Structure to design on (69 residues):
């Protein structure tokens, strides 16, 4: 949590898709990138990394990660 887009990209690479339909938050979507340790280490179909914009600077940080969604 609280990672910048640059830090996320450094560790996971570029996202497969970006959902920026909500100006307050942006979701980076990764497909088959993360592993579900509770499910015999199978890959999650989708992982959404949610960034919220911080006012007044407008910088983004991760506030939520949704696995398998």
């Amino acid at each position: 949590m609280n990672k910048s887009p640059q830090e996320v990209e450094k560790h996971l690479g570029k996202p497969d898709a970006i959902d920026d339909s909500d100006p307050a938050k942006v979701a980076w979507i990764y497909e088959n990138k993360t592993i579900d340790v509770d499910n015999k280490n199978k890959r999650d179909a989708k992982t959404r990394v949610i960034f919220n914009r911080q006012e007044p600077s407008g910088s983004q940080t991760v506030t939520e990660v949704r696995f398998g969604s």
Q: What stands out?
A: The chain has a mean pLDDT of 92. The chain has one helix and six strands.
